[in-house]
Write a structure and sequence with these properties.
about 0% strand; elongated
């Protein structure tokens, strides 16, 4: 095998690399799910606001990926061939689910960018300091003299101007597109590493079985030779 097949990221042993990969799927997607439920995940809120059913579907996909990472942690910690094999399959499933989740979310947000801008005008941009659970799109007056008014402790406490919101949303969508491209590329590589680790455990088991059989055959041959002579 080449260096890229024997190591994760060219220098991390496969078993340790698989553990970190499983930890990635578990921790990152657990965080993703938690922030989605709490209303501080801009992607989950804005894509769900565009299509309410997608809010629940996206969270379900996130939880499934998180559970898959947990199985991978078990498999890599105990060098279990069964768990490692299961995780090698789950890792590829996770990649497919991630692609579906991220791309549909991005498409929904791009297509419904005006809805995002209005929500930002009404309630400010979603974040840890500005959690938003309501998924109903904002309805604002079309009066040219309208400007957002902030009332502390209410939904519009972080209201922002249309110009500022358009800039924030545009920057967010571009950054999100770049980030998901990098994340998906990494996860495809991670899935390959998990498959390599599973193959190594399986091949190692075959090697041990062959070695034990050779010893057994050798001992039997010695026994037969001793009876002849």
């Amino acid at each position: 095998m080449g260096l890229g097949m024997d190591k994760c990221c060219c220098f991390i042993p496969l078993r340790l690399g698989t553990f970190f990969i499983a930890l990635w799927f578990f921790v990152i997607y657990l965080f993703d799910a938690a922030t989605g439920f709490l209303g501080s995940n801009a992607v989950t809120i804005y894509s769900g606001q565009s299509a309410k059913a997608w809010y629940y579907i996206g969270l379900l996909l996130t939880v499934i990926i998180c559970v898959g990472g947990f199985f991978g942690i078990i498999g890599s910690l105990f060098a279990s061939r069964k768990f490692a094999k299961a995780f090698s399959i789950i890792a590829w499933v996770n990649c497919v689910l991630s692609i579906i989740k991220y791309l549909i979310s991005l498409i929904l947000m791009v297509v419904n960018r005006d809805t995002m801008v209005k929500s930002c005008q009404r309630s400010g941009f979603v974040g840890f300091d500005n959690t938003q659970v309501p998924l109903t799109p904002a309805v604002l007056t079309t009066n040219e003299y309208y400007s957002p008014v902030r009332y502390p402790g209410t939904l519009n406490a972080h209201a922002t101007s249309e110009e500022d919101c358009k800039g924030i949303i545009q920057t967010f969508l571009i950054a999100y597109g770049v980030v998901i491209f990098i994340v998906l590329a990494l996860q495809l590589y991670f899935a390959k590493v998990a498959t390599n680790y599973s193959s190594r455990l399986r091949n190692g088991a075959r090697h041990h079985r062959l070695h034990d059989q050779q010893i057994k055959d050798f001992e039997e041959s010695r026994y037969h030779m001793s009876t002849v002579y």
